[in-house]
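RECORD TYPE: inverse folding
INPUT: C-alpha cells
STRUCTURE:
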C-alpha cells in the first residue's frame, strides 16, 4: 500500500532531509585517502544525534552502523570498518535520517585520489542517470518511466543496471511501497500521484549486472568484482512540481577532490 503524504508530512521529511544533507557535508570533510571508513560512520552518527535526530540505518533489521559504506566492487550495504581508503578507490556513502517521525535517504559515490578515467566516467554517468530519473518522477507519469530513463541512459554507455535492489517509497518507514526499479518500461508501474515520496537510487555497474551477497548477510558486491556506483535522492511528487528533498550541495562544497 502506498502512503500518500500531506504537505505537513512532506515538510517534516524535508526537515529530516535537511539534516541528512548537512550530515553528508560533514562526512565529506573527512572523505580522503588514509581515513578509516568506521571514522566516517562515527562522524555521521554524532552529527545526526547532535540535531536530535536518529540515524535511520542503525539497528534497521540488525544493521550495525549509521552509514552503509560500499567501496569499489561493493554495490550497497557495506559495513563501515577498519579499512583505510586508498588512492584509486571509490566509496559510496549511503545515509538515512529519522526525525519527527519521518525518514529521509540519500547516497553519494566519491572518487579517492587518482581514479581510472573509466571509473570516473561510471560515477558521472550514474549521477547523471539519477537526475534523468528525477526528471521523469513527475505527477501523472508512472514508476516505470523513472527506471526506463535510467536504464536507457546507462546501458547506451555500456554499463549495467542492478536489478535485485531498487529505490523505494519512504516516510514513517524507511522502506515503503512502491518499489522504484532502475530499469523498466515506459508507462508501466504505479502512477505517480500527489503526496508520493520516493527514493530514487541507481546502482550501476561497470561490468556484469550480477551481484553476490557476502556471508555477513548484508554486503552486496558485483559478481565480477568490477566497480559499482550509487547515487540517491529522496523526492516528493506534487501535482504542479517535484521537489528533491535531499541535497548533495554540502558534499560538493566540502569534498576536496
Ligand atoms: Mg534508499
Ligand atoms: Mg540510501
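DESIGNED SEQUENCE:
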Amino acid at each position: 500500500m502506498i502512503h500518500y503524504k500531506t504537505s505537513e508530512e512532506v515538510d517534516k521529511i524535508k526537515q529530516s532531509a535537511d539534516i541528512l544533507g548537512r550530515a553528508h557535508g560533514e562526512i565529506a570533510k573527512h572523505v580522503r585517502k588514509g581515513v578509516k571508513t568506521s571514522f566516517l560512520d562515527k562522524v555521521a552518527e554524532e552529527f545526526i544525534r547532535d540535531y536530535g535526530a536518529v540515524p535511520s540505518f542503525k539497528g534497521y533489521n540488525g544493521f550495525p552502523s549509521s552509514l552503509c559504506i560500499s567501496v569499489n566492487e561493493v554495490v550497497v550495504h557495506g559495513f563501515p570498518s577498519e579499512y583505510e581508503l586508498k588512492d584509486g578507490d571509490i566509496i559510496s556513502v549511503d545515509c538515512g535520517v529519522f526525525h519527527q517521525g519521518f525518514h529521509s535517504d540519500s547516497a553519494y559515490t566519491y572518487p579517492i585520489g587518482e581514479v581510472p578515467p573509466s571509473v570516473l566516467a561510471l560515477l558521472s554517468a550514474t549521477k547523471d542517470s539519477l537526475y534523468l530519473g528525477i526528471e521523469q518522477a513527475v505527477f501523472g507519469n508512472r514508476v516505470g518511466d523513472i527506471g526506463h530513463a535510467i536504464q536507457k541512459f546507462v546501458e547506451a554507455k555500456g554499463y549495467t543496471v542492478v536489478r535485485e535492489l531498487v529505490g523505494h517509497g519512504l516516510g514513517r518507514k524507511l522502506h515503503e511501497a512502491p518499489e522504484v526499479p532502475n530499469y523498466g518500461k515506459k508507462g508501466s508501474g504505479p502512477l505517480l500521484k500527489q503526496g508520493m515520496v520516493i527514493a530514487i537510487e541507481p546502482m550501476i555497474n561497470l561490468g556484469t549486472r550480477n551481484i553476490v551477497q557476502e556471508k555477513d548477510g548484508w554486503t552486496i558486491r558485483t559478481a565480477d568484482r568490477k566497480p559499482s556506483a550509487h547515487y540517491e535522492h529522496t523526492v516528493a511528487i506534487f501535482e504542479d512540481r517535484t521537489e528533491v528533498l535531499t541535497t548533495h550541495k554540502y558534499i560538493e562544497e566540502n569534498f576536496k577532490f
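NOTES: Helices lie at 7-28, 37-50, 117-136, 143-156, 249-254.
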